[in-house]
Amino acid sequence: MSNSSNNNRPLLEVKGLKTYFYTEDGVVQAINGVDFTIQPGQIMGLVGESGSGKSVTSLSIMRLLSASGKIVAGQILFGQEDLTQLNEQRLLEIRGNEISMIFQQPTSCLNPVFRIGDQIAEAILTHAKISKTEAKRQAIEMLRTVGIPDPTKRAEAYPHEISGGQAQRVMIAMALATKPKLLIADEPTTALDVTIQSQILDLMRNLRSEMGTSILLITHDMGVIAEMCDNVAVMYAGQIVEYTDVISLFDGQLHPYAEGLLAAIPVLGLVQKHLAVIPGSVPNLVDLPPGCKFAPRCPYARDLCTASEPRLYPAKPGHLVRCFMRDPETAQHWAGVQRATWQFGGDEVLVPGEQGTATSQDQVALGVSDRDITFTDQGLSLEE
Ligand SMILES: Nc1ncnc2c1ncn2[C@@H]1O[C@H](COP(=O)(O)OP(=O)(O)OP(=O)(O)O)[C@@H](O)[C@H]1O
Ligand code: SF4
Ligand SMILES: [Mg+2]
User: How far is the centre of ligand 3, averaged over its atoms, from the C-alpha of 285 (Å)?
Assistant: First the structure.
């Protein structure tokens, strides 16, 4: 897997993480044995459909789970420290300083009694030895970059005086301003328009190249993954089902779920009302099916898939996949199998795959700037 740093010691190492919620309806097994590492300066993508456990993974790292949520197994090593073992005092020092998070739901992250410009300036002052006036100036610049109109004036506003969309952007500005070692960005740009989205992605990329910040980037958007990430982990029902570098994933997904996700990408330049979705839904996490969690929706499923659980196995060097079809011990059961034709349900407008290289306009639509994307009737491929 690619590593954009000379330092081979991981910044973050998540090992065997299990996070459950104890609810009236039973135990929700939200995270079921997740392992990944992020090197200094690396951008890792976490992708998967709604309910697959992306946010719970990030909230587990931040130790910000709701009261019913518990980390029941595993380690989260941040440098030398295991975040699962730290006391609240040490966690407070790490949060918002060494690790920042852009939350999917930006509710209570801004302090209601301080002006937004002052809050960002305060965040800047935690790491930079500059005057308050300079910090304020930088805070206004930051507001401008995240697309807040009339930033000098808006810096004087209190959080209740700005819209939800602006609060999201202020929160992004604050998370970036602390120049953390690790930035966790949970769907940071989903609600924002394309221009602001690409400015924010640029800011994140700059933070990585200038400060060596590592980023855990959670998104539904494969275009954002393609543009930003070194590595990517595909999550399904609280597990990682495929984990590799981003080029390998786009070139040849090995897990049927990842294959479906990539096949569901709308063909660029053609109109689709809704993003296609893989038929069926994620399993009930209180009562998980035996064996492979994807079996009820998998076009390749065989009887053996529901008898026991597949392991996460390196089917190729640096390319891990959790599927019996790709495991050398069981792969013979799929000898000669053809690639499935994915049928997408819902009321989306389906368009036939068009062969060719994406135009620059398509690349803008996808938010891709520095990688070539080719789309074929087999899906999308990436070249550096
Ligand atoms: N506080 C909670 N109590 C009970 N179950 C929860 C709680 N928070 C999350 N879950 C469950 O954990 C599972 C994973 O949720 P999570 O929020 O991580 O999904 P996600 O991948 O981030 O989805 P999305 O793309 O919609 O944000 C879901 O089934 C969710 O219902
Ligand atoms: S293990 Fe079987 S059911 Fe699961 S993804 Fe692979 S082929 Fe499909
Ligand atoms: Mg989420």
Answer: 15
Residue 84 sits in the same domain as residue 204: yes
Closest ligand 1 atom to 66 CA? 1
Pocket test for ligand 2, best of 253, 254, 302 (most atoms within 8 A of CB): 302
Ligand 1 proximity of 214 Cβ (cutoff 6 Å): no
Could you give the number of structural domains in the chain?
A: 3
Which residue's alpha carbon is nearest to atom 18 within ligand 1? 53
Which of 193, 219, 251 is the endpoint of a domain?
251
Give mean pLDDT in consecutive 10-residue pieces for the chain, a chain of 384 residues.
57 98 96 97 94 95 95 97 95 87 72 92 86 95 88 94 82 85 89 77 86 91 88 97 95 91 62 56 89 94 96 96 97 90 53 36 39 46 51
Calculate how far, in angstroms, residue 55's C-alpha sits from the geometric centre of ligand 3. 4
Which atom of ligand 1 lies nearest, measured to the CA of 49? Answer: 25
For residues 200 and 150, membership in a common domain is answered with no
- Environment of ion ligand 3 (residues, CB < 5 A): 54-55, 104
Q: Which domain holds residue 125?
A: 108-178
Q: Supply the DSSP string of 144-192, one letter for each residue.
A: HHTT-SSHHHHTT--GGGS-HHHHHHHHHHHHHHT--SEEEEESTTTTS
38 φ, ψ (degrees, to nearest 5):
-125, 125
Structure tokens given for 255: 């897990």
Give pLDDT, residue 368.
39
Look at residue 349 in the predicted model and tell me its pLDDT: 35
Q: Are residues 64 and 184 in the same domain?
A: yes
Tokens of 91: 């966690």
User: Torsions phi, psi of 382, nearest 5?
Assistant: -125, 140
Question: How far, in Å, is the centroid of ligand 2 from the Cα of 241?
Answer: 10
What pLDDT shows up at residue 164? 76
CB 68 less than 6 A from any atom of ligand 1? yes
Q: Tell me, yes or no, whether 103 lies in a domain.
A: no
Residue 256 sits at φ, ψ, to 5 deg, of -55, -35
Q: In this structure, are 76 and 16 located in the same domain?
A: yes
Residue 102 alpha carbon to ligand 3 centre in Å: 11
Q: Is 342:280 a contact under the CB 8 Å cutoff?
A: no
Query: What's the pLDDT at 229?
Result: 95
Q: What pairs with residue 228 in β-bridges?
A: none
